[in-house]
Design a protein that fits this description.
heterodimer, A: 484 residues, mainly alpha, 1% strand, globular, B: mainly alpha, elongated
């Protein structure tokens, strides 16, 4: 039997190759060098991200390695969002990492490996690649969560995430094996062809069980309710810079994966998965709105808030239309900037010795008006109050849901959004209308990277809130790959 | 006919061994049950004529992974009795959930008519077949899997290798840099009085 090589298309996956090689080089660099090697490694990692982003922008549609790797406009957009989240988080956490002695180099290497896994998920054209990308990303983040080895809470967060994540992977694999057993292939296009009703390809309930299992596994990764139990504990226990990373990268990557699975592998089963996604959306919005109210720790609060955001994003996915997909990518882009901005403020206050309790934010506006204003901006944006970007994000989600005829769920979503505004506004109230403790001066210095991050995120949230056209144009082209 | 009988025999032992892993009081017994489960799964692979996978399961899982587990279990000082305290209270709920899932799976999966009959006895040996696709059709997944192993390696080192203050370590350069003056003091001791600092 002659050996048939696959179409090895290295050009299509050039960004992945650049980042994986960079990761290996940085790992060697981290093995030796002085105390300050962390700064150099972070710098190189960020240069690598810029290079990868430039290559990605200039990339052309292509597939490689059979159906395993797809480079299309959607993959490129999602990858750009991932570079953005990784780069911003790395940039803003330099001081934090140095202070907590976790900047030895392994941190940055693991961050790059998590990014690589996420990129592979966004480009996967096959369940096998989806799973491998997911594992690469998750495994790196499990270690990152536990990287503060002398902190009991960090260890607990890492272990909890690892054990529950492994179980979710089990669900995902069980679903994939059912799908493989019934269709005889793991390629998305092959599964879609096997299920095409035009060729009599309906596989009955067992296949739906496979879809449900796959969705359960993926829902765990995006922390959609009722698979969200791990999120608050892990967000709270992990080092804050890792929490910021966890709040953005895995969500973008997992949503990219879910998109391709549902829209390319299972388009003919949409009557089955839409109710499923709707259910996840309503649960997540509800948990995000009500459970966050009782939180006194800001990292836990943001964990529940991110569960709520996932609910809105799922609502856009449930619309199963071009407008819905566009609204999802728009929401993700805006969510990244808002979330990174909010975590930047938390990191900054951490550096000044201020804790993670929401009460600790009392009186911030009197001492540091600009910081309080920015935090208020991020909170208002998360609550979806015009004229900020968060409003645009929610607006398009609800428009898409209405167009798809989901009036009831859209109304529920708006109500949950109003409930959720309560706890965002409570932070603003603490900052502006409560007096600080006598001893609290909020006297921390704001370094150049932090200034840059806060300026960029703040300006973008303001600008996209008023002039969203450029963002909408970009998101519209990025979802064109799915002909709907 | 014989194959069917063997299949039921091996699967029954696998399931019983799996139950044993979870229920046995002594954790070393758990690991031994795990090895039994692996071995019977390997036998099931043989029934499917996947002799390479069976061999890999025996070598990698029984030979390496299970022995590693055994070491970990023996070296860790974890009171599993403590962990198991809530078991009786949670047992009814656990059994209920498990039973519901099992019933659903049985109902759903019993309706399947396997659309793809198991591959007929191949003329090419199983190892050769896997080798042919692993480095061609599955080249990219293979490479990504190697990255996952690398991350696991980095993770294991990151999480275990650290400088602890309580540990006294040997610093050879400092030892060599010690001079005679720093470490030796010559004292004249008068008899009957003892040495004084």
């Amino acid at each position: 039997m002659p050996v048939q090589m696959p179409d090895i298309n290295l050009v299509a996956m050039l960004p992945e190759i650049v980042l994986s090689l960079l990761g290996l080089v940085l790992m060697l660099m981290s093995a030796q060098g002085d105390e300050n090697r962390g700064g150099r490694i972070s710098m190189l990692a960020m240069i690598g991200l810029v290079v990868a982003a430039l290559i990605t922008v200039g990339g052309k549609d292509a597939t490689g390695f059979g159906s395993h790797f797809i480079n299309d406009a959607f993959a490129r957009s999602m990858k750009l969002l991932m570079y953005l989240s990784t780069g911003l988080v790395l940039f803003m956490s330099a001081d934090y990492m140095k202070k907590h002695r976790i900047d030895g180099g392994e941190y940055q290497v693991l961050t790059l490996m998590a990014l690589l896994g996420g990129m592979l998920m966004a480009s996967a054209g096959d369940f096998l690649m989806l799973y491998l990308g997911l594992e690469l990303m998750s495994l790196s983040i499990y270690v990152l969560a536990a990287i503060q080895r002398d902190e009991l809470r960090s260890n607990e967060a890492g272990l909890k995430y690892f054990v529950l994540g492994s179980m979710a992977s089990g669900f995902l694999l069980y679903g994939i094996s059912l799908i493989y057993g019934l269709t005889g292939t793991t390629a998305y296009s092959g599964v879609a062809a096997a299920l095409d009703p035009a060729h009599g390809g309906h596989m009955g309930t067992a296949l739906i069980l496979g879809v449900v299992m796959v969705m359960a596994g993926m829902s765990f990764k995006i922390a959609a309710a009722p698979f969200h139990m791990w999120a608050p504990d892990v967000y709270e226990g992990a080092p804050t810079s890792v929490t910021a990373f966890m709040a953005v990268l895995p969500k973008v990557a997992a949503f990219a994966g879910i998109f391709r699975v549902l829209l390319i592998a299972f388009p003919s089963l949409h009557s089955q998965w839409i109710p499923l996604v709707q259910l996840l959306a309503v649960f997540s919005m509800g948990v995000g709105a009500f459970a966050a109210i009782a939180q006194t720790n800001i990292k836990r609060m943001l964990a529940y808030s991110s569960i709520g955001h996932v609910g809105y994003i799922l609502l856009g996915l449930a619309a199963n239309s071009a407008a819905g997909l566009q609204s999802v990518v728009t929401y993700l882009a805006i969510y990244i900037f808002t979330s990174v901005g909010a975590f930047a403020i938390i990191l900054l206050l951490n550096a000044g010795g201020i804790g993670d309790e929401t009460e600790d934010y009392k009186g911030l506006a009197h001492k540091r008006p600009l910081l309080a204003f920015l935090m208020a901006l991020f909170m208002f944006s998360m609550a979806g109050i015009p004229p900020l970007a968060g409003f645009i994000a929610k607006l398009y989600i609800f428009l898409a849901a209405l167009q798809a005829g989901m009036l009831g769920i859209a109304i529920v979503g708006v109500l949950f959004s109003a409930v959720g505004a309560f706890y965002y506004l409570r932070i603003v109230k603490f900052m502006y209308f409560d007096a600080a403790k006598e001893t609290e001066t909020f006297g921390m210095a704001v370094g150049v990277p932090m200034r840059a991050i806060l300026t960029v995120t703040g300006v973008i949230i303001l600008v996209w809130g008023v002039f969203p056209e450029s963002l909408l144009k970009w998101t519209a082209t990025s979802v064109k790959a799915f002909a709907m | 006919m014989v194959t069917d009988l063997l299949f039921y025999l091996f699967s029954a032992i696998t399931v019983m061994a799996a139950v044993g892993v979870v229920t046995s009081r002594n954790q070393v017994h758990s690991v031994l049950f795990l090895i039994l489960a692996f071995f019977n799964t390997a036998a099931l692979f043989i029934l499917l004529q996947a002799e390479l996978l069976a061999a890999l399961l025996v070598i990698v899982y029984m030979g390496a992974v299970a022995v590693l587990f055994l070491f970990v279990v023996m070296m860790l000082d974890v009171s599993f009795e403590e962990l198991r305290k809530g078991m009786i209270q949670h047992l009814p709920l656990g059994v209920f959930v498990g039973a519901v899932i099992l019933a659903e799976l049985v109902v759903i999966l019993s309706g399947i008519h396997a659309p793809h009959a198991p591959a007929a006895a191949a003329t090419i040996p199983n190892a050769q077949l896997i080798g042919q696709v692993m480095f061609t059709q599955y080249l990219l997944p293979f490479e990504v899997a190697s990255f996952i192993l690398l991350v696991a390696l980095i993770g294991a080192v990151v999480l275990t290798h650290r400088r602890r203050k309580v540990v006294k370590r040997q610093i050879i350069s400092e030892q060599l840099a010690r001079t005679r003056e720093q470490s030796v003091a010559l004292v004249k001791v008068a008899s009957g009085q003892g040495a004084q600092q």
